[in-house]
Amino acid sequence: xxxxxxxxxxxxxxxxxxxxxxxxxxxxxxxxxxxxxxxxxxxxxxxxxxxxxxxxxxxxxxxxxxxxxxxxxxxxxxxxxxxxxxxxxxxxxxxxxxxxxxxxxxxxxxxxxxxxxxxxxxxxxxxxxxxxxxxxxxxxxxxxxxxxxxxxxxxxxxxxxxxxxxxxxxxxxxxxxxxxxxxxxxxxxxxxxxxxxxxxxxxxxxxxxxxxxxxxxxxxxxxxxxxxxxxxxxxxxxxxxxxxxxxxxxxxxxxxxxxxxxxxxxxxxxxxxxxxxxxxxxxxxxxxxxxxxxxxxxxxxxxxxxxxxxxxxxxxxxxxxxxxxxxxxxxxxxxxxxxxxxxxxxxxxxxxxxxxxxxxxxxxxxxxxxxxxxxxxxxxxxxxxxxxxxxxxxxxxxxxxxxxxxxxxxxxxxxxxxxxxxxxxxxxxxxxxxxxxxxxxxxxxxxxxxxxxxxxxxxxxxxxxxxxxxxxxxxxxxxxxxxxxxxxxxxxx
Amino acid sequence: xxxxxxxxxxxxxxxxxxxxxxxxxxxxxxxxxxxxxxxxxxxxxxxxxxxxxxxxxxxxxxxxxxxxxxxxxxxxxxxxxxxxxxxxxxxxxxxxxxxxxxxxxxxxxxxxxxxxxxxxxxxxxxxxxxxxxxxxxxxxxxxxxxxxxxxxxxxxxxxxxxxxxxxxxxxxxxxxxxxxxxxxxxxxxxxxxxxxxxxxxxxxxxxxxxxxxxxxxxxxxxxxxxxxxxxxxxxxxxxxxxxxxxxxxxxxxxxxxxxxxxxxxxxxxxxxxxxxxxxxxxxxxxxxxxxxxxxxxxxxxxxxxxxxxxxxxxxxx
Lengths: 493, 317
Fold this sequence. Notes:
The complex is a heterodimer. By secondary structure, chain A is an alpha/beta fold. In chain A, 34% of the residues lie in helices and 24% in strands. In chain A, strand 4 (63-68) and strand 5 form a beta hairpin. By secondary structure, chain B is mainly α. Chain B has helices spanning 3-26, 33-58, 66-82, 87-111, 116-135, 144-152, 160-178, 180-190, 192-197, 202-228, 239-249, 261-280, 285-308, and strands spanning 154-155, 158-159. In chain B, a hairpin with a 2-residue loop joins strand 1 (154-155) and strand 2. The relative contact order of chain B is 0.19. Classes of the chains: A alpha/beta, B mainly alpha. At the A-B interface, helix 12, helix 13 and strand 18 of A face helix 8 and helix 9 of B.
């Protein structure tokens, strides 16, 4: 069973970690106390995730010492860390996609009692999983396969899986703090239960306000250095943001005025017609040209499903676009692209990034055919365009030739967003475009999305982060698909 | 870069260099101009096939049928020629046979979803069986002038196999490094689902890699027949081992998304140098396969240790 060994203070003493010549963590000293929620805050690329992974035993080499209850420990392999009960939940859920929820929940829990676990009947496994899901009010079928779940649900299952292992130290890297209806409350409740048991909880995030709400202690990391550690009570949001981004300029997002909105809507509207086998779910939505439309659904995961159905990555909805009596209903993502409908998935690792390609190739991926003569890419053009796009999203131009996988998660997300916006889309569907992007780059991203709309693109954004959604959208469409609510006509704001 | 990184990166080149140096000391003839050009000639047959194998590996697949397809193409060439057709149509038919085998592999893998390992393993048996059946198991010596020229001819002193190797190598280099299609292929190997969502026709690309591989296998088969002076149904035995080893030695990864034309070419030449040195040292020919097999495993071992030793999580399993 999961171990409950670490009951004492975990102390990091002058830890450093380098990748090549790049020092990601520099002389980091920290202390974690049992039962305390500790938030580690920092910008993209500050070294947050590296520290999390270091504790989880991903790196076999690091400088400095780690003490548990005064005794030195070596976290040089996953095995070592797991023996000490250190578990990690990452932004991209680490689940076996073809196994059931139940199988995933118990995967690895039965370590050391192999025979016991293999004699366990499927039924008892399902029952235990059902109990566990019910404990957190998750209405999911334990025998459903992971691949049928939305990202949000996967994150919830991933979190529960960590909980089932009874960790003594849980690292949660970029927890889904935004979600209102499921994952957030699950994180809250998991945290509550774990802390009552004396588990150390380390939240790694760049979302200041929500981290401050949850955590007892915050530590701010910048360029691999710890800049401050304080009790949450003594820190205000502004203070923390100042520590994270000493040079932040509060860039106000430019908004289209109400009069312009009317004008724009008068010219060209795009109807998005949603059909579903249940007639109550059928809708017709109006997207205004030159506007960013926020899509918010209840349950929240359906917003993503709607966008995915539109480009046929998913088939939940029968959906098409109507524009001046013309009807777009692509049969494949390729056809959608040919009609100028671009989709950026929320699942970066599985569905959006090309980790082995250079940042330059990733940025210009949709443009390659236009940059080529007889199929041979004109390098000069490609560099020029990649540089321009990199500048727009704030990616270091010296990194254009690096593999995308060498960039931090937030920088990858920005690269992918620039890839879509650079393609001159007619309709742009952005699924959680702010995912993994820190506060300092959010204005850049917002401006980019707004510039897209201004250039005459219909932009639809789905996000579970209401603050972001309201900040970026000109209009928000609220759709309620819950069977209990009898609202067949969607409210618009 | 830590010590382990340096050691594992340099281990195989260092061992090969040590080996070649010891050969050079005991058999100075190894580094003679004549012998080295001989090495290049020996490298070119496997080189042509390995160049065909490289895009397949980049796309995340593998082609085990190359040796059998090479043999079948040569046999078809000899039979057609034997029926009285002239060399050109016979050669074209032989190339079409290789192309056809590639199309069959490609369709099986990318349109019917059969794992490449299984589809091409099946083709390996099928093509070999057809070669044996249609030739009656006997070598056929009527192979025509084109095949003889490709195998034994030369242009201003450069043997034809070397020229073919160079041409297909440059073609692949340009495709992979400079073309839109090359970038799309690497993208498929790196993240097929993202490539599909980004509108890349992954089926066509993946099928295309097998077609290219089959075509080059038949070209190599025709060339080998020219060098041997006959089409042999058992020729091309274990070509898949050598060509995969060359591609992997040159930086290819069997999980896809990695590999290059230059790397594969260098890998093929290195393998030929090792074989040649073993011949010079009078080692048993049976030992050659053992050594090549060990090279293949060592390349993976070094890569695996570099990525994180025995920890399965770090090796991306």
